[in-house]
Amino acid sequence: MYKIGLTGGIGSGKSRVADFFQEWGASVIDTDAIAHELTTVGGAAIEPLRAAFGAGMITPEGALNRQAMRDAVFRDPSARLRLEAIIHPMIGRVTQERAALATGCYLVFVVPLLVESGRWRDKVDRICVVDCDPATQVARVQARSGLTPEAIARIMSAQASREERLAVADDVVLNDKDTSLQALAQSARILHDAWCTAARQRQAGTD
Ligand SMILES: CC(C)(COP(=O)(O)OP(=O)(O)OC[C@H]1O[C@@H](n2cnc3c(N)ncnc32)[C@H](O)[C@@H]1O)[C@@H](O)C(=O)NCCC(=O)NCCS
Ligand SMILES: Nc1ncnc2c1ncn2[C@@H]1O[C@H](COP(=O)(O)OP(=O)(O)OP(=O)(O)O)[C@@H](O)[C@H]1O
C-alpha cells in the first residue's frame, strides 16, 4: 500500500490536514490518538507508567494525569526519555497492527515525532510536512488548550525545528497564519490527487 508519513510541529495543523485526507478516502493512523488510547482508563500503558513514575501520575479514575506528566517531562528531558521508552514501543505495535488492516487509496501515518525518531524514512513512500511559523503554532495551541506561551515553548523545544522538518520533506503543506482553511484544503487536495495517481501506478506495476 502507498504510505505517507505526515508530520509537523505542535499546532501546525497535522490533524486538520489528516482529516481532509480521510474525508477523501485515505486511511489515517494517528499516533497521538493511539498514545491517548494507551493512557486512558484501562489503557495498556497505565500500569507501566504507574510503576515507573509513581501513583501521583495516575488519576483516581485510573487514567494518565496528563497535566502532571506534561509538567514533568517537558521540564526534564530524562523524564521525557523514560516516558518515551515506555510508550513509544507500545505506539509502534498498535500502529503496525492497524496498518496491516488498512484499506483505502493510500495510508497516512500522522506522527508528531517523525523527524525526531529517525525511523520513518524507510517505512513510507513520502514524508509530508505541515509547515507553520512558530508564532502561529503558539497562538493555535494557546487558543485550543489554554497552555501558557512558556509551556508551549517548552514542548516546542523538545521537537525538531521548522528547518529540520523541511530538510526531510518530500511534500510540504503550508499552513501559516495567512492560510485559510479553504487554501489549506486546496493544497492538500493537490497532494491527495498526486498520491492517488502514484498509488494507482504502483498497483498497476505490480498487477
Ligand atoms: C506528555 C503528555 C502526557 C502530555 O499530554 P497532553 O494531553 O498535554 O498532550 P498530547 O498528548 O495531546 O500531545 C500534544 C502534542 O504535544 C507534542 N508532544 C507530545 N509528546 C511529545 C514528546 N514526547 N516530545 C515532543 N513533543 C511531544 C506533540 O506535538 C503532540 O501532538 C503526552 O503528550 C504524552 O503522553 N506524550 C508521550 C507520547 C508521545 O511521545 N506522543 C507524541 C508522539 S506519538
Ligand atoms: N488554517 C487554519 N485556519 C484556522 N484554524 C486552523 C488552521 N489550521 C489549523 N487550525 C486550528 O489550529 C488548531 C491546531 O490544529 P491541529 O490540531 O490540526 O494541529 P496539530 O498539528 O494536529 O497539533 P498537535 O500536534 O498539538 O496535535 C486546531 O484547533 C485547528 O482547528
Unreliable stretches covering 5 or more consecutive residues: none
Helix vs. strand class: alpha/beta
Question: Which series of helices and strands comes N to C?
Answer: EHEHHHHEHEHHHEH
- What is the third-level CATH name, the topology of the largest domain? Rossmann fold
Strand elements, count: 5
Q: How many DSSP helices?
A: 10
Major sheet size, sense and barrel closure: 5 strands, parallel
CA radius of gyration: 18 Å
Question: Which hetero ligands occur in this complex?
Answer: dephospho coenzyme A, adenosine-5'-triphosphate
Helix percent band = 55-70%
In the CATH hierarchy, what is the architecture of the largest domain at level 2?
3-Layer(aba) Sandwich
CATH class of the largest domain: Alpha Beta
Q: Any idea what the CATH superfamily of the largest domain is called?
A: P-loop containing nucleotide triphosphate hydrolases
Protein name: Dephospho-CoA kinase
Subcellular location: Cytoplasm
Pfam families: CoaE
Catalytic activity: 3'-dephospho-CoA + ATP = ADP + CoA + H(+)
Detailed description of the structure:
This protein is an alpha/beta fold and 207 residues long. It has two domains: 1-26 and 105-207, Rossmann fold (3-Layer(aba) Sandwich), CATH 3.40.50; 34-103, no CATH class. The protein contains ten helices and five strands; from the N terminus they run E-H-E-H-H-H-H-E-H-E-H-H-H-E-H. The protein has helices at 14-23, 31-38, 46-53, 66-73, 77-101, 114-117, 134-145, 149-157, 162-168, 181-206, and strands at residues 3-7, 27-30, 107-110, 126-131, 171-174. Helix 2 packs across helix 5. It is globular, with a radius of gyration of 18 Å. Bound molecules: dephospho coenzyme A and adenosine-5'-triphosphate.
